[in-house]
Structures are given as structure tokens and as C-alpha cells.
Amino acid sequence: MPWSQGGNRGIGLETVRQLAERGCRVVLASRDVSKGQAAARSLGLEQGAQTGQVTVHALDVTDAASIGALARDVESAFGGADVLVNNAAILLDEDKSVLEVDVEDFRVSMETNVYGPLLLAQALMSSMMRRRYGRVVNVSSGAGQLSSMDGYAPPYSVSKTALNAVTRLLAHAAGKRNVLVNAVDPGWVRTDMGGPNATRSVEQGADTIVWLATLPDGGPTGGFFHDRKRIPW
Ligand code: NAP
Fold first, then answer.
1. Which of 62, 85, 172, 224 is deepest in the core (most CB within 10 A)?
2. 98-128 pLDDT per residue, tens
3. DSSP-assigned states of every residue in 171-209
4. CA 9 to CA 27: how far, in whole Å?
5. pTM of full prediction above 0.90
6. pLDDT tens by residue, 34-59
7. Structural domain total, the chain
8. Ligand 1: residues within 6 Å at CB?
9. Whole domain around residue 169: which residue ranges?
């Protein structure tokens, strides 16, 4: 039972679509339930649709109580999640120098882009490990790659580097229990975040996310991927 947060638009919504199309039952988690429901309707994938089932649930990834409530509901309704796609993120100060950014913007970015995914993994992974099946996909960014980091969007870039580190830690914590944890760079994608000039469609952006979300047993873990290929940290 996959679960995609930040699912009401952009790459998250396309990830929901592709997973549901494969016949997965998907929880589309959205800060605003009515936006989530409208998004699910826009795909023709409301609960009970033939292509799969999409259930909409409220989730603010910066709110630990909201994460706890969703984890409890998913446990009681579905016996836990098989897949977690940590997709929600914010992009602040795209054009500001690291010398000028208000440190509060680093804090806010870390809350959404790092601590949210971490709390969700903590809430869901122990059940995956017990059931000996799990796939965790942390939607990161090339901006978080230390090997090519420049001056772009300091709070966002630092948060994605941290998310990559969390990916490594989670993969190690999962041990050999068939819970595969990976990070992905979707590339520059035409969404509200990526803007209209981005070079890739949401279908292309979601492809490697869905690939990692449905890896076969024995697949890679603790890696960083772009277009289904490993990339440097
Ligand atoms: P987007 O269009 O800006 O959508 C962001 C999503 O995150 C929205 O659904 C938003 O919900 C949700 N969100 C933000 N804060 C949240 C919170 N506190 N709780 C729950 N949901 C929250 O972004 P996108 O382009 O689809 O990006 C998706 C992922 O890909 C992100 O992790 C991003 O960093 C990564 N990425 C994107 C690009 C790109 O070019 N687009 C490139 C590299 C990486 P609301 O509608 O409620 O705001």
C-alpha cells in the first residue's frame, strides 16, 4: 500500500497516478484535503476506480501530530504502508547568496524537507521491517549534490544534502529486512516549483520515483538515483 505525501500537485500527484495505474492502493496525503480530493478527481482515480484506489488523507509534514494520526489510520485501515514516497518540499531563497539568507529560512526548510521525511520514516518503517517488505523513496534534488554544489538556493540545497544523509542512515537502520531506502533527483521538472521553462515533464520526473517505489527484492538501497541510474552524492 503506497503512500505519497505532497500528492496534490506536481511530481507527487503524477507519482500517485503512476502507482495507481499499476494497480496499487495509494494514500494521497495533502495539507488541504479538499485540494487532495480535487487532485484525485482530476486523475479520475478516486477510491474504487478500476485502475487502483486512491484514498485522500490530511497531512502536514511539519506537524508531528498530523504524521502520527496518518500513521495510525494507515495502520488500522491497511495494516501499514508498503511504500513511503517522501515528496513534499519547499524551495526558498532560490536566488539569494548564502551570505544573505535569513537563518530562519534554513530552519523552515529543514522542517519540511528533512524532519518531515525523517518523522514519516520513523512512523512507518518499523512496521515495514516487521513485515519484511518496504520501499522508501526520498525525493531529493541535484541541488543537494555536494559534488556539484554551487550557490543555488542555499536553504533548499542544504536541506536536500541532509535528506540524502538521512537516506543513508535509514537504509543502514533497515538492515537486511527487505526495506529498501533510496534518494532520487527527478531532474528539472515543469511544476509550480520547477516553473514552465523546465526541461522535463512530470511523467519523466516521476519515472525513477515509481521505479524505486516498486523495486524487486534484492534491489539497491542507500543510493541516489537519476533516470534509474546511480549518481554521486
Ligand atoms: P511543487 O509543485 O511545489 O509541489 C510541492 C508539494 O509539496 C505540494 O503538493 C505541496 O502542498 C507539498 N507540501 C509543501 N509543504 C508541505 C507540508 N508542510 N505538508 C504537506 N505537503 C506539503 O513541487 P514539485 O516540483 O512537484 O516537487 C516535488 C519534489 O521534487 C520536491 O521534493 C522537490 O524538491 C523535488 N524536486 C523538484 C524539481 C523540479 O524541477 N520541480 C527538481 C528537483 C527536485 P500544497 O499544495 O499544500 O502547498
1. 85
2. 999 999 999 999 999 999 999 999 999 999 9
3. HHHHTTSSEEEEEE---SBSSTTT-TT-SB-HHHHHHHH
4. 14
5. yes
6. 999 999 999 876 555 545 689 999 99
7. 1
8. 5-6, 8-12, 31-32, 35, 59-62, 87-90, 112, 139, 141, 186, 188-189, 191-194, 198
9. 3-230
